[in-house]
Amino acid sequence: MSLAGKVALVTGAGTGIGKGVAIALAQRGAKVAISYNSSDAGAKDTQEKIDEIGGESVIVRANVAYKNEIDTMVKQVAEHFGSIDILVNNAALQLNFNFYDHDEDTFDRLMNINLKGYWQCIQAVVPYMKPKGSGRIINISSVHGKRPTDFDTVYSMTKGGIKMLARESAIELAKYGITVNTIEPGAVNVGQQGTKETKPIVPAEVAEKMKKEARDIRKKFPMGRNGLPSDVGSLVCYIASDESEFMTGSSIRIDGASMLL
Amino acid sequence: MKLQNKIVFITDADSGSGKAIVNRLAAEGAHFILNSTSGGEDIESNLQLLKAFGSKVVVTNINLCKSSDLEAMLEETARQLGTIDIFVHNNNVVKPASVETCEEQLFLEIINANAKSAFICTRAIGKQMSAMQSGKVIYVSSIHAEKPTGSSFAYSASKGAVKMLCREAALVLGRDGINVNVIELGPVEGDQEFFQSDISTLYDSYQYKVPNANLGSHDDLAHLVLYLSTDEARYVNGADIRMDGGFLMHYMDFKMKRP
After folding, report:
1. Residue B238: is its pLDDT beyond 90?
2. Are the C-beta atoms of residues B235 and B190 closer than 8 Å to each other?
3. Residue B45 and residue B49: Cα distance in Å, rounded?
4. What was the pLDDT predicted at B84?
5. Is A160–B102 a contact, with Cβ atoms under 8 angstroms apart?
6. Distance (Å, rounded) from C-alpha B110 to C-alpha A19?
Protein backbone atom coordinates (compact mmCIF):
# COMPACT_ATOMS: atom_id res chain seq x y z
CA MET A 1 0.00 0.00 0.00
CA SER A 2 1.93 2.96 -1.28
CA LEU A 3 1.06 6.60 -0.94
CA ALA A 4 3.99 7.71 -3.10
CA GLY A 5 3.36 11.05 -4.75
CA LYS A 6 0.37 11.89 -2.57
CA VAL A 7 0.28 15.06 -0.51
CA ALA A 8 -1.19 14.87 2.98
CA LEU A 9 -2.05 17.70 5.35
CA VAL A 10 -2.24 16.63 8.99
CA THR A 11 -3.47 19.15 11.56
CA GLY A 12 -2.22 18.88 15.12
CA ALA A 13 0.80 16.93 13.86
CA GLY A 14 3.18 18.24 16.51
CA THR A 15 1.90 15.91 19.21
CA GLY A 16 0.15 12.66 20.00
CA ILE A 17 -2.03 10.99 17.41
CA GLY A 18 -1.27 13.64 14.76
CA LYS A 19 2.46 12.97 15.06
CA GLY A 20 1.91 9.22 14.70
CA VAL A 21 -0.32 9.76 11.68
CA ALA A 22 2.16 12.12 9.97
CA ILE A 23 5.01 9.65 10.41
CA ALA A 24 2.89 6.70 9.21
CA LEU A 25 1.90 8.61 6.06
CA ALA A 26 5.54 9.53 5.37
CA GLN A 27 6.56 5.88 5.83
CA ARG A 28 4.24 5.00 2.92
CA GLY A 29 5.80 7.66 0.73
CA ALA A 30 3.36 10.55 1.14
CA LYS A 31 4.62 14.11 1.28
CA VAL A 32 3.40 15.45 4.58
CA ALA A 33 2.44 18.94 5.70
CA ILE A 34 2.90 19.04 9.46
CA SER A 35 0.41 21.56 10.79
CA TYR A 36 0.62 22.79 14.36
CA ASN A 37 -0.62 25.69 16.43
CA SER A 38 1.27 25.84 19.74
CA SER A 39 3.76 22.95 19.76
CA ASP A 40 6.58 24.39 17.69
CA ALA A 41 9.11 21.94 19.15
CA GLY A 42 6.72 19.04 18.60
CA ALA A 43 6.32 19.90 14.91
CA LYS A 44 10.11 20.07 14.50
CA ASP A 45 10.40 16.67 16.19
CA THR A 46 7.83 15.20 13.79
CA GLN A 47 9.82 16.60 10.88
CA GLU A 48 13.07 15.15 12.22
CA LYS A 49 11.46 11.71 12.53
CA ILE A 50 10.22 11.98 8.94
CA ASP A 51 13.71 13.09 7.82
CA GLU A 52 15.19 10.02 9.50
CA ILE A 53 13.09 7.71 7.33
CA GLY A 54 13.93 9.71 4.22
CA GLY A 55 10.50 11.29 3.91
CA GLU A 56 9.50 14.69 2.63
CA SER A 57 7.69 17.21 4.81
CA VAL A 58 6.96 20.85 5.44
CA ILE A 59 5.90 22.58 8.64
CA VAL A 60 2.92 24.96 8.54
CA ARG A 61 1.24 26.83 11.36
CA ALA A 62 -2.45 27.58 11.89
CA ASN A 63 -4.96 27.97 14.65
CA VAL A 64 -7.92 26.13 13.12
CA ALA A 65 -10.32 28.26 15.16
CA TYR A 66 -9.73 30.98 12.54
CA LYS A 67 -10.76 30.60 8.93
CA ASN A 68 -8.16 33.04 7.62
CA GLU A 69 -5.37 31.01 9.23
CA ILE A 70 -6.78 27.80 7.73
CA ASP A 71 -6.97 29.35 4.27
CA THR A 72 -3.40 30.64 4.49
CA MET A 73 -2.14 27.25 5.68
CA VAL A 74 -3.89 25.31 2.92
CA LYS A 75 -2.63 27.71 0.26
CA GLN A 76 0.91 27.37 1.60
CA VAL A 77 0.74 23.57 1.42
CA ALA A 78 -0.70 23.57 -2.10
CA GLU A 79 1.98 25.99 -3.28
CA HIS A 80 4.78 24.01 -1.64
CA PHE A 81 3.78 20.54 -2.84
CA GLY A 82 1.68 21.42 -5.87
CA SER A 83 -1.54 19.85 -4.59
CA ILE A 84 -3.41 18.35 -1.65
CA ASP A 85 -4.73 14.77 -1.85
CA ILE A 86 -5.32 13.90 1.78
CA LEU A 87 -6.59 15.94 4.72
CA VAL A 88 -6.36 14.51 8.21
CA ASN A 89 -8.46 16.62 10.58
CA ASN A 90 -6.90 15.96 13.94
CA ALA A 91 -6.22 19.23 15.78
CA ALA A 92 -8.61 19.28 18.70
CA LEU A 93 -8.95 20.71 22.16
CA GLN A 94 -10.06 18.87 25.28
CA LEU A 95 -10.42 20.90 28.44
CA ASN A 96 -11.59 18.26 30.91
CA PHE A 97 -13.82 20.76 32.63
CA ASN A 98 -16.62 19.54 34.83
CA PHE A 99 -20.14 20.03 33.52
CA TYR A 100 -20.75 23.14 35.62
CA ASP A 101 -17.25 24.58 35.05
CA HIS A 102 -17.98 25.13 31.37
CA ASP A 103 -19.50 28.41 30.25
CA GLU A 104 -20.26 30.25 27.02
CA ASP A 105 -16.59 30.96 26.40
CA THR A 106 -15.32 27.42 26.87
CA PHE A 107 -18.21 26.16 24.74
CA ASP A 108 -17.20 28.52 21.93
CA ARG A 109 -13.51 27.66 22.20
CA LEU A 110 -14.13 23.93 21.91
CA MET A 111 -16.76 24.31 19.19
CA ASN A 112 -14.58 26.67 17.15
CA ILE A 113 -11.60 24.34 17.08
CA ASN A 114 -13.11 20.87 17.18
CA LEU A 115 -16.17 21.23 14.97
CA LYS A 116 -15.95 24.52 13.05
CA GLY A 117 -12.24 23.96 12.50
CA TYR A 118 -12.82 20.47 11.04
CA TRP A 119 -15.50 21.81 8.72
CA GLN A 120 -13.51 24.83 7.55
CA CYS A 121 -10.44 22.70 6.86
CA ILE A 122 -12.65 20.49 4.68
CA GLN A 123 -14.06 23.57 2.97
CA ALA A 124 -10.55 24.88 2.32
CA VAL A 125 -9.12 21.71 0.73
CA VAL A 126 -12.10 20.84 -1.48
CA PRO A 127 -11.12 23.33 -4.24
CA TYR A 128 -7.78 21.51 -4.59
CA MET A 129 -9.33 18.02 -4.67
CA LYS A 130 -12.28 18.81 -6.96
CA PRO A 131 -10.34 19.28 -10.23
CA LYS A 132 -8.57 15.95 -9.67
CA GLY A 133 -11.81 14.07 -9.16
CA SER A 134 -10.43 12.47 -6.02
CA GLY A 135 -9.51 13.20 -2.45
CA ARG A 136 -9.39 11.71 1.01
CA ILE A 137 -10.72 13.46 4.10
CA ILE A 138 -10.15 11.64 7.36
CA ASN A 139 -11.55 13.01 10.61
CA ILE A 140 -9.96 11.87 13.82
CA SER A 141 -12.86 11.88 16.24
CA SER A 142 -13.19 9.80 19.37
CA VAL A 143 -15.18 7.00 20.94
CA HIS A 144 -16.75 9.94 22.75
CA GLY A 145 -18.76 10.76 19.65
CA LYS A 146 -21.01 8.00 20.93
CA ARG A 147 -20.16 7.22 24.52
CA PRO A 148 -20.17 10.07 27.03
CA THR A 149 -16.88 11.04 28.66
CA ASP A 150 -18.12 12.02 32.11
CA PHE A 151 -15.24 14.52 32.13
CA ASP A 152 -15.89 16.98 29.30
CA THR A 153 -19.45 17.43 28.06
CA VAL A 154 -18.68 20.05 25.44
CA TYR A 155 -15.82 17.95 24.06
CA SER A 156 -18.15 15.08 23.32
CA MET A 157 -20.76 17.47 21.94
CA THR A 158 -18.18 18.53 19.36
CA LYS A 159 -17.48 14.89 18.58
CA GLY A 160 -21.19 14.18 18.17
CA GLY A 161 -21.21 17.10 15.73
CA ILE A 162 -18.23 15.70 13.81
CA LYS A 163 -20.11 12.44 13.30
CA MET A 164 -22.81 14.29 11.39
CA LEU A 165 -20.38 16.67 9.66
CA ALA A 166 -18.63 13.58 8.26
CA ARG A 167 -21.85 11.92 7.10
CA GLU A 168 -23.10 15.09 5.42
CA SER A 169 -19.71 15.78 3.82
CA ALA A 170 -19.57 12.20 2.52
CA ILE A 171 -22.84 12.50 0.61
CA GLU A 172 -22.17 16.06 -0.53
CA LEU A 173 -18.61 15.55 -1.77
CA ALA A 174 -19.09 12.08 -3.29
CA LYS A 175 -19.77 13.68 -6.70
CA TYR A 176 -16.18 14.95 -6.73
CA GLY A 177 -14.70 11.56 -5.90
CA ILE A 178 -13.79 12.79 -2.44
CA THR A 179 -14.33 10.34 0.41
CA VAL A 180 -14.92 11.40 4.00
CA ASN A 181 -14.44 8.96 6.85
CA THR A 182 -14.11 9.12 10.59
CA ILE A 183 -11.81 7.31 12.96
CA GLU A 184 -12.89 6.95 16.58
CA PRO A 185 -9.87 6.11 18.71
CA GLY A 186 -10.24 5.02 22.30
CA ALA A 187 -7.58 5.91 24.87
CA VAL A 188 -4.26 6.41 23.10
CA ASN A 189 -0.86 6.80 24.77
CA VAL A 190 0.25 10.21 23.59
CA GLY A 191 3.05 10.96 26.01
CA GLN A 192 3.56 14.36 27.57
CA GLN A 193 1.32 16.99 26.01
CA GLY A 194 -1.41 19.46 26.68
CA THR A 195 -1.34 23.03 27.83
CA LYS A 196 -1.23 24.68 31.23
CA GLU A 197 -4.94 25.24 31.30
CA THR A 198 -6.02 21.68 30.61
CA LYS A 199 -6.68 19.67 33.72
CA PRO A 200 -5.58 16.04 34.04
CA ILE A 201 -8.35 13.60 33.15
CA VAL A 202 -7.82 11.59 36.29
CA PRO A 203 -6.78 13.12 39.61
CA ALA A 204 -3.25 12.22 40.74
CA GLU A 205 -4.39 9.87 43.49
CA VAL A 206 -6.57 7.95 41.06
CA ALA A 207 -3.72 7.76 38.56
CA GLU A 208 -1.47 6.32 41.29
CA LYS A 209 -4.07 3.72 42.14
CA MET A 210 -4.46 2.77 38.49
CA LYS A 211 -0.73 2.29 38.20
CA LYS A 212 -0.77 -0.18 41.07
CA GLU A 213 -3.57 -2.01 39.36
CA ALA A 214 -1.77 -2.24 36.04
CA ARG A 215 -2.32 -5.97 35.98
CA ASP A 216 -6.01 -5.27 35.72
CA ILE A 217 -5.55 -3.41 32.43
CA ARG A 218 -7.34 -6.18 30.56
CA LYS A 219 -10.45 -5.21 32.43
CA LYS A 220 -10.32 -1.95 30.51
CA PHE A 221 -8.43 -3.03 27.39
CA PRO A 222 -8.98 -6.63 26.27
CA MET A 223 -5.81 -6.52 24.13
CA GLY A 224 -3.77 -5.87 27.27
CA ARG A 225 -2.68 -2.36 26.28
CA ASN A 226 -4.13 0.93 25.20
CA GLY A 227 -3.70 2.42 21.77
CA LEU A 228 -0.65 4.02 20.19
CA PRO A 229 -0.54 6.86 17.67
CA SER A 230 0.90 4.38 15.18
CA ASP A 231 -2.24 2.20 15.50
CA VAL A 232 -4.30 5.15 14.33
CA GLY A 233 -1.63 5.94 11.71
CA SER A 234 -1.97 2.52 10.03
CA LEU A 235 -5.71 2.94 9.72
CA VAL A 236 -5.31 6.45 8.30
CA CYS A 237 -2.93 5.06 5.68
CA TYR A 238 -5.46 2.47 4.53
CA ILE A 239 -8.22 5.07 4.26
CA ALA A 240 -5.83 7.46 2.49
CA SER A 241 -4.95 4.85 -0.13
CA ASP A 242 -6.64 4.16 -3.47
CA GLU A 243 -7.73 0.81 -2.07
CA SER A 244 -10.41 2.44 0.09
CA GLU A 245 -12.10 4.13 -2.88
CA PHE A 246 -15.65 2.89 -2.16
CA MET A 247 -15.55 3.54 1.57
CA THR A 248 -17.08 6.87 2.51
CA GLY A 249 -19.23 8.20 5.33
CA SER A 250 -17.95 5.40 7.56
CA SER A 251 -16.80 5.55 11.15
CA ILE A 252 -14.27 3.09 12.44
CA ARG A 253 -13.76 2.60 16.15
CA ILE A 254 -10.16 1.68 16.99
CA ASP A 255 -9.88 1.00 20.70
CA GLY A 256 -8.79 -2.62 21.23
CA ALA A 257 -12.44 -3.41 22.06
CA SER A 258 -12.32 -1.27 25.20
CA MET A 259 -15.75 0.21 24.47
CA LEU A 260 -17.22 -3.28 24.38
CA LEU A 261 -16.48 -3.84 28.05
CA MET B 1 -53.73 15.25 36.48
CA LYS B 2 -50.23 13.93 36.01
CA LEU B 3 -48.39 17.23 36.36
CA GLN B 4 -50.41 19.02 39.04
CA ASN B 5 -48.56 22.23 39.94
CA LYS B 6 -45.37 21.21 38.18
CA ILE B 7 -43.38 24.09 36.67
CA VAL B 8 -42.43 23.57 33.03
CA PHE B 9 -39.96 25.70 31.06
CA ILE B 10 -40.30 25.40 27.28
CA THR B 11 -38.09 27.08 24.69
CA ASP B 12 -39.44 28.25 21.35
CA ALA B 13 -43.01 28.10 22.58
CA ASP B 14 -44.05 29.84 19.32
CA SER B 15 -43.30 26.78 17.20
CA GLY B 16 -45.84 24.15 16.23
CA SER B 17 -44.14 21.60 18.47
CA GLY B 18 -43.98 24.11 21.33
CA LYS B 19 -47.69 24.88 21.15
CA ALA B 20 -48.66 21.21 21.03
CA ILE B 21 -46.48 20.39 24.04
CA VAL B 22 -47.80 23.32 26.06
CA ASN B 23 -51.41 22.38 25.35
CA ARG B 24 -50.86 18.75 26.30
CA LEU B 25 -49.02 19.48 29.55
CA ALA B 26 -51.48 22.20 30.51
CA ALA B 27 -54.27 19.64 30.42
CA GLU B 28 -52.34 17.79 33.16
CA GLY B 29 -52.21 20.76 35.49
CA ALA B 30 -48.75 22.20 34.76
CA HIS B 31 -47.69 25.84 35.07
CA PHE B 32 -45.37 27.41 32.50
CA ILE B 33 -42.45 29.60 31.73
CA LEU B 34 -42.61 30.09 27.98
CA ASN B 35 -39.70 31.47 26.06
CA SER B 36 -41.34 33.13 23.09
CA THR B 37 -39.35 34.95 20.43
CA SER B 38 -42.50 36.93 19.57
CA GLY B 39 -42.82 37.96 23.21
CA GLY B 40 -46.14 36.10 23.46
CA GLU B 41 -47.72 37.68 20.38
CA ASP B 42 -47.79 34.52 18.29
CA ILE B 43 -49.24 32.41 21.10
CA GLU B 44 -52.18 34.60 22.09
CA SER B 45 -54.76 31.85 21.58
CA ASN B 46 -52.64 29.37 23.51
CA LEU B 47 -52.35 31.79 26.39
CA GLN B 48 -56.16 32.08 26.45
CA LEU B 49 -56.41 28.31 26.58
CA LEU B 50 -53.91 28.14 29.44
CA LYS B 51 -56.00 30.64 31.35
CA ALA B 52 -59.01 28.37 30.91
CA PHE B 53 -56.99 25.41 32.19
CA GLY B 54 -55.99 27.42 35.25
CA SER B 55 -52.28 27.34 34.38
CA LYS B 56 -50.05 30.09 35.70
CA VAL B 57 -47.84 31.43 32.89
CA VAL B 58 -44.78 33.63 32.64
CA VAL B 59 -43.80 34.64 29.12
CA THR B 60 -40.13 35.49 28.57
CA ASN B 61 -38.02 36.32 25.57
CA ILE B 62 -34.39 35.89 26.51
CA ASN B 63 -31.17 34.91 24.79
CA LEU B 64 -30.87 31.23 25.73
CA CYS B 65 -27.13 31.22 25.01
CA LYS B 66 -26.44 33.80 27.71
CA SER B 67 -26.04 32.37 31.22
CA SER B 68 -26.44 35.72 32.97
CA ASP B 69 -29.80 36.45 31.30
CA LEU B 70 -30.94 32.93 31.99
CA GLU B 71 -29.94 33.00 35.66
CA ALA B 72 -31.68 36.34 36.19
CA MET B 73 -34.82 34.91 34.59
CA LEU B 74 -34.65 31.76 36.73
CA GLU B 75 -34.32 33.83 39.89
CA GLU B 76 -37.29 35.97 38.95
CA THR B 77 -39.54 33.07 37.92
CA ALA B 78 -38.57 31.12 41.04
CA ARG B 79 -40.08 33.99 43.02
CA GLN B 80 -43.20 34.17 40.85
CA LEU B 81 -43.91 30.50 40.18
CA GLY B 82 -41.33 28.29 41.87
CA THR B 83 -38.33 26.33 40.62
CA ILE B 84 -38.45 24.41 37.35
CA ASP B 85 -39.43 20.74 37.49
CA ILE B 86 -39.44 20.04 33.76
CA PHE B 87 -37.26 21.62 31.11
CA VAL B 88 -38.17 21.09 27.45
CA HIS B 89 -35.57 22.33 24.99
CA ASN B 90 -37.50 22.74 21.79
CA ASN B 91 -35.31 24.94 19.56
CA ASN B 92 -35.24 23.84 15.96
CA VAL B 93 -33.56 26.23 13.55
CA VAL B 94 -33.36 24.64 10.09
CA LYS B 95 -31.64 26.54 7.31
CA PRO B 96 -29.88 25.21 4.22
CA ALA B 97 -26.11 24.95 4.73
CA SER B 98 -23.77 23.26 2.28
CA VAL B 99 -20.39 21.95 3.50
CA GLU B 100 -18.78 23.48 0.45
CA THR B 101 -20.34 26.94 0.44
CA CYS B 102 -21.79 27.74 3.89
CA GLU B 103 -20.67 30.98 5.55
CA GLU B 104 -19.25 30.88 9.06
CA GLN B 105 -21.95 33.18 10.42
CA LEU B 106 -24.78 30.87 9.36
CA PHE B 107 -22.99 27.82 10.74
CA LEU B 108 -22.61 29.48 14.13
CA GLU B 109 -26.20 30.72 14.11
CA ILE B 110 -27.50 27.17 13.68
CA ILE B 111 -25.08 25.58 16.15
CA ASN B 112 -25.81 28.20 18.78
CA ALA B 113 -29.58 28.12 18.36
CA ASN B 114 -29.85 24.34 18.53
CA ALA B 115 -26.88 23.10 20.56
CA LYS B 116 -25.27 25.90 22.56
CA SER B 117 -28.61 27.02 23.98
CA ALA B 118 -29.34 23.43 25.01
CA PHE B 119 -26.07 23.26 26.94
CA ILE B 120 -26.28 26.70 28.54
CA CYS B 121 -29.89 26.10 29.61
CA THR B 122 -29.18 22.62 30.96
CA ARG B 123 -26.30 23.97 32.98
CA ALA B 124 -28.34 26.78 34.54
CA ILE B 125 -31.52 24.79 35.10
CA GLY B 126 -29.59 21.70 36.13
CA LYS B 127 -28.16 23.62 39.09
CA GLN B 128 -31.66 24.49 40.22
CA MET B 129 -32.90 20.93 39.78
CA SER B 130 -29.85 19.45 41.51
CA ALA B 131 -30.65 21.49 44.60
CA MET B 132 -34.06 19.80 44.66
CA GLN B 133 -32.62 16.39 43.76
CA SER B 134 -35.26 15.90 41.10
CA GLY B 135 -36.21 17.08 37.66
CA LYS B 136 -36.73 16.15 34.03
CA VAL B 137 -34.78 17.44 31.06
CA ILE B 138 -36.19 16.68 27.61
CA TYR B 139 -34.55 17.72 24.35
CA VAL B 140 -36.77 17.77 21.29
CA SER B 141 -34.33 16.84 18.56
CA SER B 142 -34.48 15.20 15.17
CA ILE B 143 -33.77 11.97 13.31
CA HIS B 144 -31.06 14.06 11.68
CA ALA B 145 -28.89 13.49 14.71
CA GLU B 146 -28.20 10.20 12.89
CA LYS B 147 -29.38 10.55 9.30
CA PRO B 148 -27.69 13.18 7.14
CA THR B 149 -30.02 15.70 5.53
CA GLY B 150 -28.15 16.39 2.31
CA SER B 151 -29.27 19.98 2.79
CA SER B 152 -27.90 21.33 6.08
CA PHE B 153 -24.78 19.86 7.62
CA ALA B 154 -24.83 22.53 10.31
CA TYR B 155 -28.31 21.44 11.37
CA SER B 156 -27.46 17.77 11.66
CA ALA B 157 -24.14 18.56 13.38
CA SER B 158 -26.05 20.62 15.95
CA LYS B 159 -28.41 17.73 16.56
CA GLY B 160 -25.50 15.29 16.82
CA ALA B 161 -24.07 17.56 19.50
CA VAL B 162 -27.35 17.56 21.43
CA LYS B 163 -27.36 13.77 21.39
CA MET B 164 -24.02 13.75 23.18
CA LEU B 165 -25.14 16.50 25.56
CA CYS B 166 -28.03 14.26 26.54
CA ARG B 167 -25.73 11.33 27.29
CA GLU B 168 -23.32 13.44 29.32
CA ALA B 169 -26.06 15.23 31.24
CA ALA B 170 -27.76 11.91 31.97
CA LEU B 171 -24.64 10.96 33.94
CA VAL B 172 -23.90 14.25 35.67
CA LEU B 173 -27.46 15.33 36.44
CA GLY B 174 -28.52 11.72 36.84
CA ARG B 175 -26.47 11.56 40.04
CA ASP B 176 -28.83 14.20 41.42
CA GLY B 177 -31.98 12.31 40.54
CA ILE B 178 -32.65 14.11 37.28
CA ASN B 179 -33.69 12.30 34.12
CA VAL B 180 -32.28 13.57 30.82
CA ASN B 181 -33.57 12.27 27.51
CA VAL B 182 -33.74 13.27 23.87
CA ILE B 183 -36.58 12.71 21.43
CA GLU B 184 -35.45 12.35 17.83
CA LEU B 185 -38.55 13.29 15.93
CA GLY B 186 -39.15 12.12 12.37
CA PRO B 187 -41.03 13.92 9.63
CA VAL B 188 -44.27 15.73 10.27
CA GLU B 189 -46.42 17.42 7.62
CA GLY B 190 -44.48 20.08 5.75
CA ASP B 191 -40.98 18.96 6.72
CA GLN B 192 -40.03 18.30 3.10
CA GLU B 193 -39.85 22.07 2.64
CA PHE B 194 -37.16 22.40 5.29
CA PHE B 195 -35.03 19.57 3.95
CA GLN B 196 -35.13 20.06 0.18
CA SER B 197 -31.99 18.45 -1.17
CA ASP B 198 -30.28 17.80 -4.49
CA ILE B 199 -28.44 14.92 -2.89
CA SER B 200 -30.72 13.03 -0.58
CA THR B 201 -33.99 11.43 -1.70
CA LEU B 202 -35.09 10.96 1.91
CA TYR B 203 -38.05 13.32 1.68
CA ASP B 204 -39.30 12.13 -1.72
CA SER B 205 -42.72 10.60 -0.99
CA TYR B 206 -41.71 10.71 2.63
CA GLN B 207 -45.17 10.08 4.02
CA TYR B 208 -45.20 6.62 2.42
CA LYS B 209 -41.84 5.73 3.88
CA VAL B 210 -43.55 5.51 7.25
CA PRO B 211 -44.55 1.82 7.09
CA ASN B 212 -48.24 2.38 7.85
CA ALA B 213 -48.24 5.47 5.61
CA ASN B 214 -49.55 7.69 8.43
CA LEU B 215 -47.41 10.71 9.24
CA GLY B 216 -47.04 11.64 12.87
CA SER B 217 -47.82 15.05 14.28
CA HIS B 218 -46.68 17.37 17.02
CA ASP B 219 -49.46 15.91 19.17
CA ASP B 220 -47.67 12.55 19.06
CA LEU B 221 -44.55 14.35 20.19
CA ALA B 222 -46.49 16.01 23.02
CA HIS B 223 -47.67 12.63 24.34
CA LEU B 224 -44.10 11.40 24.58
CA VAL B 225 -42.97 14.62 26.26
CA LEU B 226 -45.73 14.11 28.81
CA TYR B 227 -44.62 10.54 29.51
CA LEU B 228 -40.98 11.60 29.95
CA SER B 229 -42.16 14.40 32.27
CA THR B 230 -43.73 12.01 34.74
CA ASP B 231 -42.25 9.65 37.30
CA GLU B 232 -43.58 6.73 35.27
CA ALA B 233 -40.46 7.34 33.17
CA ARG B 234 -38.08 7.35 36.15
CA TYR B 235 -35.94 4.55 34.67
CA VAL B 236 -35.61 6.24 31.29
CA ASN B 237 -32.38 8.23 31.36
CA GLY B 238 -29.79 9.12 28.72
CA ALA B 239 -32.05 7.63 26.07
CA ASP B 240 -32.40 8.87 22.53
CA ILE B 241 -35.89 7.94 21.52
CA ARG B 242 -36.47 7.90 17.79
CA MET B 243 -40.09 8.83 17.17
CA ASP B 244 -40.76 8.52 13.45
CA GLY B 245 -43.29 5.74 12.94
CA GLY B 246 -40.47 3.57 11.55
CA PHE B 247 -39.53 6.12 8.86
CA LEU B 248 -35.80 5.55 9.20
CA MET B 249 -36.31 1.81 8.88
CA HIS B 250 -37.53 2.38 5.32
CA TYR B 251 -35.45 0.61 2.69
CA MET B 252 -37.37 -0.86 -0.27
CA ASP B 253 -39.27 1.82 -2.22
CA PHE B 254 -41.38 -0.67 -4.18
CA LYS B 255 -42.80 -2.10 -0.96
CA MET B 256 -44.14 1.25 0.22
CA LYS B 257 -47.77 1.28 1.26
CA ARG B 258 -49.35 3.78 -1.13
CA PRO B 259 -52.96 4.90 -1.25
Report:
1. yes
2. no
3. 6
4. 98
5. no
6. 33
With CA atoms as reference, report the closest residue to A164 among B162, B95, B139, B194. Answer: B162
Which residue type occupies A240?
A
Which residue type, as a one-letter code, is found at position A109? Answer: R
8 Å CB contact between A32 and A50: yes
Q: Which residue type occupies B52?
A: A
Q: Which domains does chain A have, with CATH numbers?
A: 7-260 (3.40.50.720)
Q: What is the mean pLDDT of residues B228-236?
A: 97
Pick the closest to residue B161 from B112, B113, B115 (CA basis).
Answer: B115
Residues written for chain A: 261
- ipTM of the predicted structure? 0.95
Quick check: B107 and A116 CB within 8 A? Answer: yes
Query: CB distance from A107 to chain B under 8 Å?
Result: yes
pTM, two decimals, is 0.94
Please say whether the beta carbons of A160 and A113 come within 8 A: no
A102, A123, A161: residue with CB nearest B161: A161
- Percent of chain A past pLDDT 90, that is, above it, reads 83
Half-sphere exposure of residue B173: CA atoms within 13 angstroms, side-chain side: 32
Q: Is A36 a catalytic residue?
A: no
Contact B73, B128 (CB under 8 A): no
Instruction: Indicate the residue of B126, B145, B171 with minimum beta-carbon distance to A148.
Output: B171
**Strands of the B178-185 sheet, one edge to the other:** B57-60, B31-35, B7-10, B86-89, B135-142, B178-185, B240-243
Q: Using the CB atoms, write b or e for A85-105: b if 16+ within 10 Å.
A: bbbbbbbbbbbbbebeebebe
pLDDT, tens digit (0-9, with 9 covering 90-100), for B49-93: 999 999 999 999 999 999 999 999 999 999 999 999 999 999 999
State whether B164 and A111 contact (CB < 8 Å): no
Distance CA A146, CA B97 (A): 24
Which of the listed CATH numbers 3.40.50.720, 1.10.10.10, 3.40.50.2000, 3.40.50.10860 matches domain B7-255?
A: 3.40.50.720
